[in-house]
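User: Predict structure, ligand flavin-adenine dinucleotide.
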Amino acid sequence: MTQTADLDRDARRTLDLLGPAPDNWVPDRPGVDHNVFIVGAGQTGCAFAFALRRAGIGRVSVIDAAADATKAGVWLNRARMNKLRTPKTLVGPEGGLPGLSFRAWYEARFGAASYQDIDRIPRERWAEYLAWYREFLEIPVRYGTRLVRIEPKGTHFALHLEVDGVARVETARKVLLCNGVAGNGGAFVPAVLKNLPPQLVAHTSGAIDFAALRGKSVAVLGERPLRSMPPRPRSKQAQRTCICSRAVRRSRPRPYHARGPIRAHTTTTSICPMRCVGRRRCVSNARVRRRRRIRSNA
Ligand SMILES: Cc1cc2nc3c(=O)[nH]c(=O)nc-3n(C[C@H](O)[C@H](O)[C@H](O)COP(=O)(O)OP(=O)(O)OC[C@H]3O[C@@H](n4cnc5c(N)ncnc54)[C@H](O)[C@@H]3O)c2cc1C
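Assistant: Predicted complex:
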């Protein structure tokens, strides 16, 4: 594969054609530190930071609770699938500028043919692209800075922060919450499992010792975690895998990377239903009961 010397040529040309970002046209207000305060430096926060710059809105601050860039966002942490679920052609943080797109970035490094070959974007490549996006566009991020409370203060907001563990208050006119999965609530472990020893229960948001599952029977609670589990531990290392879900969704397609036999049970119980602890709600048993009822009525 022939690589161009300047991998960022298209991106540079795009910025060149756009011209310099306009100067900040938002008048300063006494007592207000930031025009816009962006919470979260994942793909959403960085895309907003760039868009605001291009719109001539200055004094924008981006914070992230993560200690550094590798810990921010989901892609190198809780997301464990090999490829993104979303099609590779979906618009990303490039904001309509093809030279800043994943495709331009990928083709410059791996070639156009390679881009045609991939059906979906490999997760780690997406993480690399986002890191490049942030660095190339020089989006400054204050890592190790967590927003803990927002307080209305006249025409603006007082933002209660923890900077490397130290409390601090800053003010902003507007706040953009780009805090991703953390913004949708925290990790939830059902009460019945909470007191189990840590080696027996794990949440997908944390580290999981997959090698330790080899040869064991594993119960996966909820369908969503399927997407963050690599197929190998699920179907090969673990002796038996059982998927439990609160809702019956028989029409739901299996995740694209699901391989091997997976027995789907549907139960409200939080205990491994490998032996159908939650018989009352088990789909297969419900079917058996329905057949028996039909036979006894006939
Ligand atoms: C397992 C998994 C798989 C996924 N697969 C896909 C997929 O294939 N395709 C897809 O489009 N989407 C997928 N998603 C959704 C994915 O999370 C989003 O598309 C994407 O990460 C959203 O980016 P974001 O910047 O909004 O949030 P995130 O990437 O989650 O970033 C949010 C940032 O906010 C920071 N933050 C949170 N709270 C605070 C706070 N109080 N103070 C300061 N900083 C804070 C966090 O540290 C984090 O860095 C997946 C999600 C998960 C969990």
